[in-house]
Design a protein that fits this description.
Bound molecules: cytidine-5'-monophosphate
Order of helices and strands: EEEEHEHHHEEEHHHHHHEEHEH
CATH architecture of the largest domain: 2-Layer Sandwich
Number of strands: 11
Number of helices: 12
Number of domains: 2
Amino acid sequence: MSGETGAAQPAGLRILRFAPAKLNLTLAVVGRREDGFHALHSVMMPLILGDAVAVTLASGAAGARGDTLRVAGLGLPVTPDNLVLRAIAAARGAVHATWPGAPSTPPALAVRLAKRIPVAAGLGGGSSDAAATIAAALEAWGAALSGDALVTLAASLGSDVPFFLAGGAALVTGRGEFVAPLPDLVGESPAALIVTPRLAVSTAAVFEAYAGGERPRTQAALAVSERLAAELRAGLSGSALVSGAADLAAANDLLPATLSVAPSLAAFRVALERLLGRPVGQSGSGPTAWVLFPSLATARQAARLVRLGIRDGNLPPIGDGDPFVAATVTAGRAGITMVVESNRSGGVA
Ligand code: C5P
């Protein structure tokens, strides 16, 4: 993504970027760092479920004061600490001396965000929006950054942002800043059912609970995570990934901490597993539960079953309203490019 520095885009031109959600197929916590962050070993995979970011050069006030953000879709309050606005400000700071219009400040940007990824869900929505915004802002300004500068910029906004800049499945280590791309799955992409109870689960609170002792006693998650990364490198098929879902679902070291922060999740996850007869994993620090399926059609059937379960009381009530339920497909690099192309021909409100 770090292309040559070129000319800024003409005013009015709209740059569109797809911002996929992600799943943590594994999440092992391997230690605590001196900076207070936890060191992770996590295999992360993008999904076709995603937000869309549209960026244009704004006329009006220069610099950060002129940046604007409008959000459509799922409700999201627009405050100055929104990751999209912070991403533009940080990107502007990183390129101000080197972009084609230096020494002037890179111009203000107007962003429209079509929000489909639930917020604070463990699906990386805010981080993905930030990564997509950095890429679009650099393109709008005709600016470029070295790979290292890009990662530093991304990591300053959130631990998951570097993963989204890389655009594909990856083994993520460190606090999230080391992203080793992994090959796409071989054959048909598996589908995922996403069930996100409307509970506010703070990532910081989950890591705090983990540090306080709410954690597994074994290093089983790390072994599963290392094995999955090796299998993907060797060419893992989508169907083999789905067959191994029970090991993956058990390989999230944050689960006990998440359940201590949001105790109502425990009964809900047990009921979901019983209803679907398949292993239920957790993405990131939660509260999103994932279930893998061999095809989108089977995941859609499961989504209907879950919606009925919520309506008929076969799943316990949880959170503030009905959970978000979606059937989606895991995305390889090629899949993400396809979505970017289809977004170019429309789709952002
Ligand atoms: O970087 P992000 O905003 O996702 O992190 C939120 C909080 O979660 C951090 O401030 C930190 O307390 C905790 N965290 C951590 N180790 C990580 C990622 C996050 O301790 N690898």
